[in-house]
Every structure is written in structure tokens, then in C-alpha cells.
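> call design_seq(struct)
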């Protein structure tokens, strides 16, 4: 079955995205009628927002299909010129040269002689009229083809616009979502929305919907001409079309869940593959290659089986409908042939409903094929539309996700805070009913360094998340310079901090651009000064292009320690009054760590600093050390005070150095 650009047959050729695209990862969930209606309404807004493209596309579609519909009627008239069958007016279209003179039924002129104007009377074919009809046919078919080509170009433009708009809206909404949304979801699944789901929706919006309109035009036009030719032969479709529609509906109902199950299985397979490939070093280090391959084989087998079931059951629809349509065509040819022979032998007159000329029979057969084509294609369009609706529902589910809580109306920008931070009876939990931080209170004077230590899961990073308002507290307050942070705009609050995290992040760009990410408009001298302070300048200059070397794949070609140093240089270039260091030296060796600590002292001078560290040797000079365990601050004080008390901190320190 061909699908794609609109043409005389009302079909589409080369649809770029089919329902069985393995990248369509819709969940195995049936859309209820209300959801389907809501999704269709939202999709129509995207489609008709480009009305200046849609309207010409509709006009081109109508013109192309109308020309294609008129052409068979013209071809029938051309055939009638050379056919031996009388027309409905009772005159012969043409006659055999050897018998024309003996045809007693040819009307005579008023003077008793045969009408010399009739080509049939002399047995001659009216070639002038024949050329006229042939020329009209060529004009119709050529015009239809050219208009279909123009329509394909317009649809490509429409598809580009819709794809751009959908991806733009989706990505802009994603960057506004709270951090918690990304903590709960796989990155690969989110990316599939931006790529595969958008492509699926775009195909239906820019192709399938217009093909539905094209099919309606084709069906209505064909029915009109078939009624004008032979209403009796049209009765064949009164039997075959209901059977075709019933079969399509029954099979679609059965197949639709199979396609959704297949998409879900493929999504699981892709997610597992992405996860395992990203952790390939760990997999090899632990000798788990065979285990991972076995797990992949299981998921692959499930996906393949789901793929087979969906395609096998889905494949029945097309051939089944095609069989019914071919049966209808056979019946039309059979009964049409009988009617033609009756007309040829004169057993039925031109006034009879059974009368049909050879040209009309030829035109009717062509119209029946055009009529059956859209019916046959409609099953495939329905499958694609179901796939597109499921993909659109997934996209709109993201677009409906609530963004970060808007800033309060009276929220103000804090441009250069002094750095006094107060945490007052704060409690917080990521999940309702599961508290992570319990009644935390802390005063941090400006310019001081606060270290937060404790075992894994104690709540150290959670404190940082709350300071940055990646999450809002459940109860209590956090204040900067006496102002509650929810009364400060998020952008200005986060700009007041510079963060160096354990998980380094480098983007695709030059080394210089990665360092300059810490401050807009940084000069080359400032970038190099920051690199020297981070003890990474020598390494950068050893690279093939120095500071102009392009980093790719998150800096995969350099070590973790070197990536860490580049991110530290980025932080040194920033001039934020407050600093957050989350295991900032965890990926560097002891010698480099000592050099970094010296540079950090300069970086931290005069700034309010929050340091999360497992290496307790790095925070001995902190003004205050918080010891957390189970979401509570169980100890606090200086290094000397905590060591002399012999509590939990002392046991942690001794476990590392004794």
C-alpha cells in the first residue's frame, strides 16, 4: 500500500513515519474519548496556527483531486467515440465501416438522406473530437500531478514548522520544570518525547489529516460520477463498504492495544540499552558483560515478540480490506459487462437504468478503484492517527506538568547579598510522609565556611537543594540577609551562588567556552587566570588547540580529575558572593588536591561557603562543621571541638586516618 503525496488516486506515497515505527514509544494505555477529544483540539491549534500554509495546502489538495476525478469521465467520452454502443440519446457513437451504411437505425435527414454530419453514418471516427478529449485527459492528469508535487512541497514546509514549534514548546517547558521532575525520570525517556513522539505527531498533522480530507473529496466525487453513470452498479458498494468498515473497526480494536504494548516494550529495551551502554566501564570492570547481554536478550525477545504480534495482527487489515475492494471491483466488471452486452445487443434501451456504454463502463471501473483506494487507506490512517494521538498525549502530559512555583508577586531581586544565611526550624521530605531533614536550625555569618559531613544519605545534599530552592521547604524558613528566600526571585537567588559539584558537566564547546560559562563576557586573560588558579592551565596548553580545543561527549577524552579542575576554574571565574562545594576535589589526587585547596582559600576568601566533604582533611579549617545523620544535625562545632568531644565526628575522622 502506497502512501504519501496526494495524487489523482487520492492516495499518499511514501509516508515517512508509520505506525510500526520502532521509535514510537507510547505507553500501553488506551485513550478514553474525552482524552482523545482534548488531544485532538490541542493538536488542531498547532495545525491551524499555520493557516497561511494549511489553506494553500487544502486548495492544492482539492484542485489535484478534482482534476484526477474528472479525468476518468473524459476518458470514457474518448472511448465512446470509437465504441459501437449507442449513447443515451439514441445516436450511434461510431460504427464499423463495413456495416455503417446498412444500419437502419441511423436517423435520416429531412430530405430522406442520411445525416452527413454523423461520423457514425460514414463509419469514420471523429479524430478531432478524439484529440480534444485526449488533450483534456493529459491536461487533467498532468495538472493533478503538478499540483500534487506542489502540495508535497507545501506539506514539507508545514511539517517543518510544526516540528519546530512542538520541539520548541516542549524544550522550553522542560527547562522550566522543577529539578524533582528530572530526578524521577530517565533522561532517555524524556529525549524520546522530543524526537520520536514529535515526529509521529508531525506526520499525522501534516499528512494524515489532509489525507483524510483528500479521501473525503475523492469518495464524494467518485460517488457523484458513479451515480450519474450507473446507480445500479453503485449498489455493489452498499454491500462491500459496510463489510470493509466493520472488519476494519473490529481489527483496529484488537490491534491498537498490541501496538501500545509493543511501544512500551521497545521503550523498556531502549532505556535498558542506554543505561548499560552509559555504564560500560563499570560493566566490564565487574565482568558482568554476559549477564548484561542475557538481560538484554530477554528484553529484546519480549520486544520482538510484541513487535511480531502487533505487525502480524495489523497486517491482516490491509489485505482483508484490499480483498473486499477487489471483490467489489470484480462484481462491477461482471455486472457492468452484462449490462454492456445487453446495451450492445439492443436488449436494453438508452432510457433503461441498466444501459451502459463502453466508455461509461471504463469510467465507472476507474471511479470504483479511486473510491476503493481511500477506503483501503483509511484503515492505515486510523492506525497512524491512533499512534499519533498516543504520542501527542505523552507530549501534552509533559506540557501539563506544573513548572516551578512562580515567584511571589512581591519577590525582589537580590543582586549582591552580604552572605548572612539563616536556617530556621526547617523540615523537608522529597516524598510526603518521609521526612529527610528534621527541624534544622543554623546561623551562618557572612564570609564564614560551613562544612557538612556525615554518612551517605544523611541529608547533606538536601540542604544544598533547599538553599538553592531546587526544592522548597515543607516547614520553617531559610533567610539570606534577613530576607526569606521565597521572597527573592529564583534567578537572582541562584545567581548569588557558585556551585562546584562532584558530578562534573562539560558541554560541547571549546575549553575556553566551558570555563567562561561561569561569567558572561569573560576575557581571555581572565579565563587563563582562572585556569592557572585551578592548576589546569598547563594541561590545557598541552592540548592540540590549547584553549580552543573542542570538548566532545562531556569531555570523555580527558580524565575525571581534569574535568573537575576545569569546572573549578569555571567557579573561580564566577564572582558570586556565596559558594557551594559538593565533593569538589573528590576526583583529584592528593598532590593536586592540596594545590586546589590553596586556590580554594583564595576563592573562598570573603565568601559564605558551604562545603560537603567525605574527605575530612579538607574541612579542618572550617568555621563550623555540621555532622548530620538520618536528617538530623547530631553534632556541630569546630574540628578541634568535635575531636575533643569524642563523638560521631571523631569516630568518622579516626576511621579515615587511624
Amino acid at each position: 500500500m502506497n502512501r504519501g503525496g496526494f495524487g489523482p488516486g487520492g492516495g499518499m506515497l511514501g509516508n515517512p513515519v508509520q505506525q510500526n515505527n520502532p521509535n514510537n514509544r507510547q505507553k500501553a494505555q488506551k485513550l478514553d474519548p474525552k482524552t482523545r477529544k482534548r488531544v485532538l483540539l490541542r493538536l488542531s491549534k498547532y495545525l491551524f496556527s499555520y493557516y497561511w500554509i494549511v489553506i494553500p495546502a487544502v486548495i492544492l489538495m482539492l484542485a489535484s483531486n478534482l482534476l484526477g476525478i474528472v479525468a476518468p469521465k473524459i476518458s470514457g467520452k474518448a472511448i465512446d467515440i470509437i465504441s459501437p454502443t449507442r449513447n443515451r440519446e439514441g445516436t450511434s457513437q461510431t460504427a464499423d465501416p463495413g456495416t455503417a451504411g446498412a444500419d437502419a437505425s441511423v436517423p435520416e435527414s429531412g430530405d430522406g438522406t442520411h445525416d452527413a454530419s454523423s461520423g457514425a453514418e460514414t463509419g469514420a471516427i471523429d479524430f478531432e473530437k478524439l484529440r480534444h478529449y485526449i488533450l483534456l485527459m493529459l491536461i487533467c492528469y498532468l495538472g493533478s500531478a503538478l499540483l500534487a508535487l506542489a502540495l508535497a512541497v507545501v506539506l514539507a514546509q508545514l511539517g517543518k514548522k510544526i516540528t519546530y514549534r512542538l520541539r520548541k514548546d516542549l524544550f522550553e517547558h522542560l527547562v522550566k520544570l522543577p529539578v524533582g521532575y528530572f530526578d524521577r525520570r530517565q533522561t532517555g525517556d524524556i529525549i524520546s518525547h522530543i524526537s520520536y513522539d514529535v515526529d509521529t505527531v508531525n506526520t499525522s498533522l501534516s499528512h494524515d489529516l489532509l489525507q483524510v480530507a483528500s479521501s473525503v473529496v475523492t469518495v464524494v466525487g467518485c460517488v457523484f460520477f458513479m451515480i450519474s453513470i450507473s446507480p445500479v452498479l453503485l449498489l455493489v458498494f452498499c454491500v462491500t463498504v459496510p463489510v470493509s468498515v466493520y472488519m476494519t473497526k473490529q481489527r483496529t480494536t484488537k490491534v491498537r492495544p498490541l501496538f501500545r504494548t509493543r511501544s512500551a516494550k521497545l521503550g523498556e529495551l531502549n532505556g535498558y540499552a542506554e543505561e548499560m551502554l552509559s555504564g560500560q566501564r563499570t560493566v566490564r570492570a565487574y565482568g558482568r558483560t554476559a549477564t548484561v547481554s542475557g538481560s538484554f536478550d530477554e528484553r529484546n525477545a519480549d520486544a520482538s515478540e510484541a513487535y511480531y504480534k502487533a505487525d502480524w495482527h495489523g497486517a491482516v487489515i490491509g489485505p482483508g480490506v484490499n480483498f473486499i475492494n477487489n471483490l467489489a471491483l470484480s462484481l462491477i466488471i461482471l455486472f457492468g459487462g452484462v449490462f454492456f452486452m445487453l446495451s450492445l445487443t439492443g436488449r436494453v434501451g438508452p432510457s433503461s437504468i441498466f444501459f451502459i456504454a463502453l466508455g461509461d463502463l471504463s469510467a465507472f471501473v476507474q471511479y470504483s478503484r479511486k473510491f476503493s483506494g481511500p477506503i483501503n487507506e483509511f484503515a492505515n490512517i486510523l492506525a497512524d492517527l491512533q499512534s499519533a494521538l498516543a504520542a501527542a498525549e505523552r507530549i501534552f502530559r509533559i506540557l501539563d506538568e506544573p513548572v516551578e512555583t512562580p515567584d511571589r508577586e512581591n519577590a525582589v531581586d537580590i543582586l549582591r547579598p552580604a552572605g548572612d544565611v539563616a536556617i530556621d526550624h526547617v523540615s523537608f521530605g522529597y516524598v510526603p510522609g518521609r521526612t529527610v531533614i528534621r527541624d534544622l536550625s543554623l546561623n551562618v555569618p557572612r564570609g564564614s565556611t560551613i562544612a557538612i559531613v556525615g554518612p551517605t544519605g544523611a541529608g547533606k545534599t538536601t540542604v544544598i537543594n533547599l538553599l538553592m530552592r531546587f526544592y522548597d521547604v515543607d516547614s520553617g524558613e531559610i533567610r539570606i540577609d534577613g530576607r526569606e528566600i521565597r521572597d527573592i526571585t529564583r534567578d537572582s537567588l541562584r545567581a548569588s551562588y557558585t556551585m562546584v559539584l562532584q558530578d562534573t558537566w562539560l558541554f560541547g564547546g571549546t575549553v575556553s567556552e566551558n570555563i567562561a560559562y561561569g561569567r558572561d563576557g569573560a576575557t581571555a586573560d581572565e579565563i587563563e587566570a582562572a585556569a592557572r588558579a585551578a592548576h589546569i592551565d598547563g594541561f590545557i596548553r598541552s592540548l592540540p588547540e590549547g584553549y580552543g580545543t573542542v570538548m566532545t561527549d562531556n569531555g570523555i577524552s580527558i580524565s575525571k580529575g581534569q574535568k573537575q579542575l576545569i569546572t573549578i576554574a569555571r567557579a573561580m571565574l564566577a564572582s558570586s558572593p556565596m559558594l557551594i562545594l559538593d565533593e569538589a576535589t573528590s576526583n583529584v589526587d592528593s598532590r593536586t588536591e592540596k594545590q586546589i585547596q590553596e586556590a580554594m582559600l583564595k576563592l573562598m576568601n570573603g565568601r559564605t561557603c558551604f562545603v560537603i566533604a567525605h574527605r575530612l582533611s579538607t574541612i579542618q579549617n572550617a568555621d563550623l562543621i555540621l555532622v548530620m545523620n538520618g536528617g538530623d544535625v547530631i553534632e556541630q562545632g569546630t574540628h578541634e571541638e568535635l575531636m575533643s568531644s569524642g563523638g560521631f565526628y571523631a569516630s568518622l575522622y579516626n576511621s579515615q586516618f587511624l
